[in-house]
Write a structure and sequence with these properties.
The protein has helices spanning 13-22, 57-70, 86-96, 103-110, 112-121, 135-145, 168-181, 265-278, 311-319, 323-331, 367-370, 413-423, and strands spanning 4-9, 27-31, 49-51, 74-79, 129-132, 149-152, 163-165, 209-213, 219-227, 230-241, 250-255, 284-293, 296-303, 348-354, 359-365, 375-380, 387-388, 399-405, 425-428. It is of the alpha+beta class. α6 (135-145) packs antiparallel against α7.
Length: 429
């Protein structure tokens, strides 16, 4: 054995291409076979790609051990950037004798209802919620709260199948969509049955959903490391919602975030530590979404991975910090003893560009965006020939890409969003 290699489980081709450009240590990528021959992998050394069904754990472990033996290399660490594959990554790390958050803690985090239950038990602010599988249960909770509620999948991500309901009519319509759409996602790894940590039957995310109280207030997101009992906040961003899209959709992330009066970063750090430990975590890298209401932090979501979407590119442009490399360094044991968030000196934002209609892209011209001096990066996720789908059938597919910008401090996010939308020339059929 000569040197070590990082094992990245179940990520996407765009992340593979990016990490090959930015991470200097050896990496082995375990990828879903559907990504074989993907255009983003055209310039990637095929010897560092293992295509294997990610639901076949023994097959994955056998392929990795064979690769390590043939190349006379040892595993330096295990990492994962996708929620749906965190449990597999944890089991692999255990088999290989490497550090990773425990399977039990990951299961609690993947089950959003269980997370809320444990946070509220630990006196951590989080929305009151129930697990429902019928219209009657959903309406009963709504009547009990006497305030707006949010319906969401147990283990989904982003804004997929999120509904804000203020009236019974909204609930009836949203429950109908849930009942129609959840079973269609049964083959999606995000919606696979979740094992229980208490010996109970697995929870089926395609048969039930969460109903929780709607929490008003500005929303934020951050990454943090829990290490040796200390909390280090790695990045902080604000969230701006896209009101012309489905509920929960993001118009933009901002760095630095604009926190409201009465907010305390010390209070946030204490809440982050309590939230992680309440789910059974003792170490790791995490991202968390939270709302600030009357100066208090209300935890909404948490995952044991770095923030995704446009966040890594936004943070790198804003302050030069590569949060993906920071994460890999932690998981490989190369992480410096102390990490801290670097606050950008200027205002930066990443703005999503949404498709306005479905179809196949026959022309895509970003030149009118790239000609703007305040554009610091344009990252397209679609190209000519790609199919575009819209909610409720698909929520991720509608995002054509995003721009990282450095606008005037007094910029208006809404008008900037529509301005950029109009400058991306696109034709579909």
């Amino acid at each position: 054995m000569q040197h070590g290699i990082m094992i990245v489980v179940g990520t996407t081709p765009d992340y593979v291409a990016r990490l090959c450009r930015t991470y200097t240590e050896p990496i082995l990528f375990i990828l879903d076979p559907r990504f074989n021959n993907h255009s983003f992998l055209a310039n990637v050394d095929p010897s560092i790609l293992l295509f294997t069904p990610l639901e076949e754990y023994e097959e994955i472990l056998g392929s990795i051990n064979t690769y390590l033996s043939m190349n006379k290399i040892y595993p330096q660490g295990v990492a994962c950037f996708d929620c749906e594959h965190l449990l597999t990554a944890s089991k692999l790390a255990q088999s290989l004798g490497l550090p990773f958050p425990s399977p039990e803690a990951i299961i609690r985090t993947r089950n959003k209802f269980e997370s809320r239950r444990l946070w509220r038990k630990a006196a951590i602010n989080s929305p009151d919620a129930i697990l429902a599988s019928s219209l009657g249960e959903t309406l009963e909770f709504f009547d009990k709260l006497k305030k707006p509620v949010v319906l969401k999948p147990i283990s989904g991500s982003g804004s997929e199948l999120l509904f804000r309901c203020e009236k019974k009519e909204n609930i009836m319509e949203s429950v109908k969509i849930m009942k129609e759409q959840l079973p269609k996602r049964r083959i999606n790894p995000l919606f696979k049955p979740l094992p229980s940590t208490l010996g109970e039957p697995p929870v089926d995310p395609c048969n039930s959903w969460i109903v929780e109280e709607f929490i008003s207030g500005p929303e934020f997101s951050c990454d943090f490391i829990l290490n040796d009992g200390d909390i280090a906040i790695i990045r902080e961003t604000g969230k701006i919602k896209a009101d012309d899209q489905s509920f929960g959709s993001i118009l933009a992330y901002t760095a630095p975030p604009s926190y409201p009066e009465g907010f305390s970063i010390e209070n946030l750090a204490q809440t982050l530590e309590k939230a992680a430990k309440a789910l059974g975590f003792t170490w790791g890298y995490f991202m968390i979404d939270f709302i600030i209401q009357n100066g208090n932090v209300v935890i909404i979501e948490m995952a044991s991975r770095p923030g995704g979407d446009s966040i890594p590119d936004l943070i790198e442009k804003a302050n030069g910090c590569d949060i993906l490399t920071t994460y890999l360094n932690l998981m490989s044991g190369r992480c410096p003893a102390k990490q801290e968030s670097k606050i950008p000196s200027d205002v930066f934002a990443s703005i999503n560009i949404y498709a306005r209609q479905e179809g196949v892209i026959i022309d895509l011209d970003p030149s009118q965006i790239l000609s703007l001096s305040w554009i610091k990066g344009l990252f397209l996720k679609k190209g000519v020939g790609d199919q575009v789908h819209l909610p409720p059938n698909d929520y991720d597919n509608r995002i054509l890409g995003y721009c990282v910008i450095c606008p005037d401090p007094q910029w208006d996010p809404i008008s900037t969003y529509y301005y950029l939308q109009g400058r991306l020339k696109i034709s579909l059929k």
